[in-house]
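re the bet — no i am not wrong, look at it urself. input seq straight from the record:
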Amino acid sequence: MLAEPDVLQTAGAKTFFGYWDSLPKTGIVPDRSEFNPARIAALMPAVTILEVVSEDLILQRLTGTAVCRAMGFDPTGKNALDLILPQVRPDYIKLIQAQISCPCGRWNIIRSRRDNMVDRAEVLTLPMFHRHSGRWMILSYFGALEPVAYDPGPYEILGYEDTTWIDIGAGTPG
């Protein structure tokens, strides 16, 4: 068992990390088949699963109901890159590539626009591997923190305020 990261702010993120850490691992990450949503049913509204197909295609495989409500639509099956402000996409792709090239956890504070408001949220992302497809997956928990500004427009991730890498046994990106 890994020590709970000090950066986690919400009770949900702490519970989410504990669940991920309890999963059987192949190497240092769990296989997608080990993830059982029923075991964290109370958290699932705030959970997403992404499948990294390529640098240009990151499929939204699962989107919790609270995330869908915040976005105003269900992005399941769509390219997650389309949900990110175009000038932020290159940084996001670098974060994903760093996280899967040196399997590790990632904690962020993000700003996103929804319902004409800019919100801050704690996001904990942890890797899984899907042995059947041979692709990496990113399991994420979104914990709302607070609204910070009014900004008319559709749902979009506007940027990252803070990023901390979490060592799960393979180190962290250098």
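see?? The helical segments are 11-22, 65-71, 89-101. told u. also The CA atoms of residues 79 and 132 lie 20 Å apart. so pay up
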